[in-house]
Amino acid sequence: MPNTLIDNQTARLCGFNYVLAELTPASPYGVAAKHAMQPFLPGSETALASLFALQAQLLAALQADDKPFATLEHQLAQLPDWRDALSRLEAGATLTDVDFLGLKQLLYWHRGMKNSMQQLPLPQDIPALNADFSILLKLLDPEQTGSPSFYLADSYSPQLAYLRQQMRQLRQALHSYTNQQDQALAERLGQPQLPSGEFRAPRADSQLSQRLSQWPELTVSRTTPTDIYYKRQPDEQELVWQQELNQLQEQTKAVENEVRAQLSDQIRQYGLLLSALLQALGRLDLLLAKVRLAHRWHCSPPNTQPRLAEEPAHINAVGAWHPQVAAELAEQGASFQPISWHLTSGAAVLTGANMGGKTVALRLMALLTAMAQYGIMVPAQEFTLSLVNGIRLVTASYTADTPGLSRFGSEVKALRSVLPLTSHNFLLLYDEPASGTNPVEGAALAQALVEYTAQQPSINAFATHYAELAHLQGVAHWQVIGLSQADPEQLAQAFASSGGSLRAIAALMDYRLQPVPPGQPLPQEALGVAQLLGLPAPIIDRAKELVGE
Q: Whole-model pTM?
C-alpha cells in the first residue's frame, strides 16, 4: 500500500499498521486489494460517503444475522489464486490441468457466491460479479458432472478418446499375457512368485541361488545381505506391445496438448471478464473484511462533508478509543477511556501530567483520520473530518533513523522536514516538541512553532508540558483531566493499599480531554504524583514554593 497519505513512521507510531494487520480478507484477491488500497483525498468526499453508507448497511445486516455474511466469507476463503494463470493465459501460454482445475473451482464457488450475495445489501450493478460463466463451466465440465474437479475428458476430442481406448485395450492384453508368462515360469521353477513379480533366493541356499542365476529368462533385480532377487525378462511379444504402448502414449500426449491449447484459446476470449471478476472479488472481500473489523471493534462510519475553500478544516471526535491500546489494556484487566476533541485549521495545544495520555491522544487523532481516509470505519461514537492530503506525527523520541544526532538534533531534523507541510492541507501532530534541550530555549522554540503554525491552513496539535503554550492567543487549549478532579484522600488511600503501584494512579487517572478557557491556570499534578511516589516532603514543599513564586 503506497504511503501517499501517511508515512511509514506515522503509520507505525499511531497504530495504523496494527489496524492493517487486523484487517484480514479471506481470499488472495482480497489480500491483493488490501495492499493496493489508495486513500480518499480531498475532492473524493462523495465517493467516500457512499462507501461508508454501504458499509453501514452491511454492518446492520451482520448485526441482525451473521449467517449470510459468514457464508459469503467462507466461499471467498475457498477461492483458488488464479492470478498467475490468468497472466500466463493473457501472454499466450497454454494452460495446465492444474490451471483448468483452479478456474473450474473459482467459477464453481463464484456461482454459489451469487446466491449468497443476494442475501446481503450489496450493489447489484457490478457486471463482473453478476456475470454468467455457465458457458465456461460447461467447457470445463463437458460431461456435466457438476463436480469442482477437472479431468481432460475423452469427450474433448474423438481422436483422444480413440487413442485412450487403444491404450486401455493394449494395457489389458499386455497385463493378461504377462501374468500368464509369470505363472508358467513359476510352475517350471517350482518357486512362488512374490507380489512384486520377483523370485527370492536366500544366499544361504547356494543351490537355489545357482539354479536361478543360470535360468535364461531371469535377471537379478536387486540384492540384500541375505537374499538375491530375480525377475523375469520380457519376451519378444511383450517388448513389441510395450513399444506400441509407448507410441500410443506419445500420440495421446500430443493430442492432449492440442486439446489444452484449444481450451486455452477458448478461455482466453474471456480474459478481460475474468480479470474484472478477480478484481471485483478482491474489492468485495476487502469490503466484507472492513465491515467484519468494524463489527469486532464496534466502529461507526465517519462523516466526511466537502468544505468550501474559505472554510477551516476540522477533525472532531466524540467517544473515540484506540483499538491497539485498548487490547493492551484488556490484557492487564483495564479498559480504554474514550476521549473527544475538536481540531480546526491552525494550532491546538494538549497539556496534562505525565502518564496522562497526551501521546495516546495524538496517536488516536492520526489513526482515526488515516482509517477514515482509507475507507475503514472508526472506533468512535462520532467522527467528522475534512479530508486532508497527509498525516504526520513528529515525536521527540530518538530513533536509529538519525545516527550520530542527539535527541534534540533528531527532533530538529524531523521538524525541518515537516514544517513545509504546514502551508498545505495536512494533519500535523507534535509530541513534546523542543523537549530535548534546556527548558528556557525549549519553551521559546515550542512557542515559536505554535505561533507559526497557528497562522497556517494545516491542522496542528501539540502535546506539551510547557505552560507558556497554554495561554497563547488564538490557540485552542485542550487538557487531559488527569488527577485534577480526583479526591486527594481517595488517591492516597488507593496508592497506599496497592503497595505503591503506579497502576493505582493510572486507575484514578481521567484520560478524557477537556477544553480549557483562556487564562485558566494549569493544575500542578506533577508534584502530587511525585509526593505519592515517595519524594521527601522538604523537596516537595520547596518545589511548591518555587512554583508559587
A: 0.87
